[in-house]
Structure prediction request, 73 residues.
Amino acid sequence: MAGVGTFEKCQKQIESGIKRRLKEGHNYIALDLPYFTKSDQSETDTYLKQLEERGFKIEISHTDSSKYGKAYW
Prediction:
């Protein structure tokens, strides 16, 4: 899912996935956010902080050129 310059696409997919998984009765969503460039890193870190401020628990399992993990509610 994540590639260089795809932050907005990934964010939209995560937001729609959160709505869909809530409706289905699940309590988490997988995360795959770009972490290639400085701007990718900044946008990803800011978005993860915003999710935490909204009450999500963020669990990052691996960071390479992308940040992989889960967001729980």
